[in-house]
Design a protein that fits this description.
This protein is an alpha+beta fold. It contains 4 helices and 6 strands.
Length: 146
């Protein structure tokens, strides 16, 4: 029953207006947290790899709108490692989303949720706005990895 309650809360949050998007910056990610979050790493040639975590749901229209663009990021920017985590049928991913939010000091999260470089961004406008902005954010993170 607790899991169903979480799903109902997640479904309610999905129906929030697009104006209810947030961006939260984590100042200190070096402290011990309940989970180890890899924001950046290095590939075999020593280049910075930025990790982008997208949490999404099967019944979330904004998630489905964002998905092709997020997959395009993975293809067009080999230095971005995309982690797609579906939450409506995977309880482990749902718990992971809330744990990740908690680890960075955020208690409110909605889908689609994008975690990267100590940031949380929720919501999706379109490829030209949110998508382009997200790519710029990932480029900034690559230039200043944490």
């Amino acid at each position: 029953m607790k899991f169903l309650g979480s799903l109902m809360i997640a479904a309610f949050i999905v129906m929030m207006p697009q104006s209810a998007i947030s961006k939260i910056r984590v100042v200190d990610t070096s402290s011990t947290t309940p989970m180890d979050i890899v924001w950046t790493s290095k590939n075999s040639t020593g280049q910075v790899v930025v990790h982008l975590y997208m949490y999404w749901g099967l019944q979330c229209p904004h998630c489905h709108e964002a998905m092709p663009f997020i997959k395009k990021i993975a293809r067009n920017y080999p230095w971005v490692k995309v982690h797609l985590r579906e939450i409506s049928e995977n309880r482990k991913n749902l718990v992971s989303m809330y744990n990740m939010a908690d680890a960075i000091g955020e208690s409110n999260v909605a889908i689609p949720a994008f975690f990267y470089c100590g940031y949380l961004y929720t919501g999706w406008g379109d490829d030209e706005t949110t998508g382009a902005w997200l790519v710029d954010e990932l480029k900034q993170c690559r230039g200043n990895p944490i």
